[in-house]
């Protein structure tokens, strides 16, 4: 919400509830594909493609959070547009999304990759090693 106000193209004002809801949906998609989906997808990749667990875990953790950005970018752009252009029509919003989609999507992918891709891999490896070290093998 603060970034929306700080970098908005209009004088700061209250953020519409629908923008908050869209931001929550966007963030839920990223979190879901960063923490919940990789283990599930990894098992599928191992079974269907015959890939080792280590390779499947790494590939799923690095790709899924980035791939979802191509789905969540329009949600992000519409949410910002609802704040910046209060009276815009659906047609105008679609035009804005089309205009800004690829640059925004790739920007979001490259922003997501270090934290949720590489960070997720490192987090999992540390967690597994700590569990082995402490004897927590559940």
Automatic annotation (TrEMBL):
InterPro entries: C365.16-ike
UniProt GO cellular component terms: mitochondrion
PANTHER family for the chain: SEQUENCE ORPHAN
Protein's recorded name: Mitochondrial carrier
């Amino acid at each position: 919400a603060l970034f929306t106000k700080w970098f908005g193209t209009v004088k700061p004002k209250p953020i519409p509830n629908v923008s908050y809801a869209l931001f929550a949906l966007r963030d839920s998609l990223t979190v879901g594909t960063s923490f919940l989906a990789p283990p599930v997808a990894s098992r599928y990749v191992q079974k269907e493609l015959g890939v080792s667990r280590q390779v499947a875990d790494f590939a799923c953790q690095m790709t899924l959070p980035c791939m979802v950005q191509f789905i969540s970018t329009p949600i992000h752009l519409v949410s910002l547009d609802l704040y910046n252009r209060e009276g815009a029509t659906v047609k105008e919003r679609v035009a804005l999304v089309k205009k800004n989609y690829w640059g925004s999507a790739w920007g979001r992918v490259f922003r997501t990759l270090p934290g949720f891709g590489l960070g997720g891999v490192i987090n999992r490896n540390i967690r597994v090693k700590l569990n082995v070290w402490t004897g927590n093998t559940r």
